[in-house]
Amino acid sequence: MNPENEESGKGYGLSATGCSGSWRVDLDEDLDGSEWRLQLDGPRISFDFVVRDLGVIRSAVEYLQAKQNRDNPLLLGYFGSNTVALHWDNEYPDRCFLIIGVDFSSTLHLTLFADDTAMLAGALQQILEELREQA
Predict the structure, then answer these.
(1) Closest Cα to residue 87, out of 103, 69, 66, 106?
(2) How many CB atoms are closer than 10 A to CB 86?
(3) Euclidean distance between CA atoms 70 and 88, whole angstroms
(4) Across all residues in the chain, what is the average pLDDT?
């Protein structure tokens, strides 16, 4: 569990999970149903953040599979007061960034290459299928 959550007393339960290649993604819901978190575990990244809404999972799959919208980042959610977004690189066509930051003056770019984006999209697709089965 995230130490930030331990301090706030919030508890989470696993709602759905997806695996593809070396990527695993877990979707957790807080116990009162007011917040969702994604845990991304890849070969070079382990990251946990609050998603803005469940619809962003489908949007992320489409964004990663389309490899377009290079001028427009996709807002996924929040890491504390910082935004979390996906943004395709304008320089290298097979590179996408997971960007954490408040503004462009203070950001962290985690690099996802073609194999990462394909596996991440596949794991997120499995989450969508699992959520559909639960409905």
Answers:
(1) 69
(2) 21
(3) 5
(4) 89
Provide the whole-model pTM. Answer: 0.88
Of the candidates 127, 120, 45, 47, which has an alpha carbon nearest to the alpha carbon of residue 84? 47
Distance CA(33)–CA(86), nearest Å, equals 25
Q: Tell me if residue 54 falls in helix, strand or coil.
A: coil
Give 24-41 pLDDT, tens digit per residue: 999 999 988 889 999 999
Q: What CATH number should be reported for the domain holding residue 73?
A: 3.30.2450
The tally of domains found in the chain comes to 1
pLDDT score of 11: 79
- SS3 for 43? coil
Would you place residue 2 in the very low, low, confident or very high pLDDT band (cuts 50, 70, 90)? very low
Coarse DSSP helix, strand, coil percentages of the chain, rounded to the nearest 5 percent: 30, 40, 30
